[in-house]
Amino acid sequence: MMLTFASYNIHKGVGLDRRRDPERILAVLREIDADIIALQEADRRFGAREAVIPRQAIDDHSPWKPVSPGMRSASMGWHGNVLLVRRDIDVVAVSVVPLPTLEPRGAVCAELDVGGSRLRVVGMHLDLSGLRRRHQVDAVCAHVGRGAKMPAVMMGDFNEWSAHGGALRGFSDGFRVLAPGRSFPARRPVAHLDRIVVTRDWTVEQAGVHHSALAAIGSDHLPVWARLTLPA
Asked: What is the CATH number of domain 2-229?
């Protein structure tokens, strides 16, 4: 089974032209055409934390459905973290991952059934503080390790400038940390802030940064993606 995963910090839909354009974000996602997507900064920060991309737009103009923990009525995710999956993928369970935070950060975990195969997916946005990031990685790994063992993919904006150190040391030998490429800032990327972490069950076929004309101005981050195979 081959699946494409993607992670995209959409900066609340505000592009480098300072326009909030949810349709542009959806267009970028359609360019990537991933099976499972983790979005960060997908909700407004204040008030009701309303979703940046209207649910109706996702339903009418995309092949995905949001995986919502249902914590806030106007929001699709948790602290801006949203998972989107193709509509033929069954969502078995969804939960928020409690993170030790200084800032309003969070993570969402979903257990999915894809053609009879079970897997866990986590979308996250980690803290600017290095110490908090390490504690948050520990919390996510502990959450993924609970219950039945199954293949897992964790992805998001890690806010980690170190190539191999820092919070990335929190992932044990059972995980593989992918650095698809420089994704921040979008205009002239220099940092690998957006990462995808996989358990050893997966074979990594390909990984990269999506750099199209729309993606170059749609957010301050570029999307990253990975094509993974799960052996039978």
From this structure: 3.60.10.10
Cα 220 → chain centroid: 15
Please state the φ and ψ torsions of residue 201, each to the nearest 5 degrees.
-65, -25
Q: What CA–CA distance (Å, rounded) separates 133 from 144?
A: 16
For the cut 70, the answer to whether the pLDDT of residue 179 exceeds it is: yes
pLDDT at 196: 98
Is the Cβ–Cβ distance between 223 and 41 less than 8 Å?
Answer: no
Instruction: Name the nearest CA neighbour of 231 among 151, 122, 111.
Output: 151
pLDDT bin (cut points 50, 70, 90) of residue 47 is low
- Cα–Cα distance measured from residue 232 to residue 189, given in angstroms and rounded to the nearest whole number: 37
Residue 125 tokens read as 């946005």
pLDDT given for residue 46 in this prediction: 62
